[in-house]
Design brief:
Length: 165
């Protein structure tokens, strides 16, 4: 199975939306309640383009198997060298190396663009994502206890950090 990592294009928004909406409805990967519309996802895509922040997709057999992106960690000037990333893999494409390829490429892009550190926010119950990030050298920085509420339960959010230089 050949995985192609490439820059996302507007034509990918529908498949990205499918991945996002599945996670919203079925997991605590995204701390959101309502499915997004195509228009909302398109606005997100366009804003990333304006901000010059990457969106990459993993493509397998002409299908989006996953996507990744990053953006400035917080919207104040002093954070301009710190990015927080997101990676989502389609439910049918997990355990095929898609996430590894996406994160490797995001780290490469962040280094090439002069960022100093990359941050991951991982749901406290998502041990696979936590270990995945640790395998890339991310270090656990701390946990916000009961910061989210979804599926009738309180959620902890773990933060991990990778220095890029």
């Amino acid at each position: 199975m050949k995985i192609i990592i490439r820059k996302a294009e507007e034509r990918d928004v529908t498949e990205i939306l499918d991945i996002v909406n599945y996670e919203i409805l079925n997991s605590t990967v995204l701390y959101d309640y309502k499915k997004r519309t195509y228009q909302q996802q398109l606005v997100w895509f366009e804003k990333k383009q304006i901000d010059k922040m990457p969106i990459i997709v993993a493509e397998i057999e002409n299908r989006v198997a996953g996507f990744g992106t990053y953006g400035i960690f917080r919207p104040w000037a002093a954070y301009q060298f710190s990015v927080e990333h997101s990676i989502y893999v389609h439910r049918d494409m997990r355990a095929n190396g898609v996430g590894k390829k996406l994160l490797s490429k995001l780290i490469e892009l962040a280094k090439d663009n002069g960022f100093h550190t990359m941050i991951a926010g991982v749901d406290g119950s998502n041990e696979k994502s936590f270990e995945f990030h640790k395998n890339f050298g991310f270090e656990e920085i701390g946990t916000f206890k009961e910061i989210g509420f979804k599926f009738d339960k309180w959620l902890d959010l773990r933060f991990l950090q990778l220095f890029l230089k």
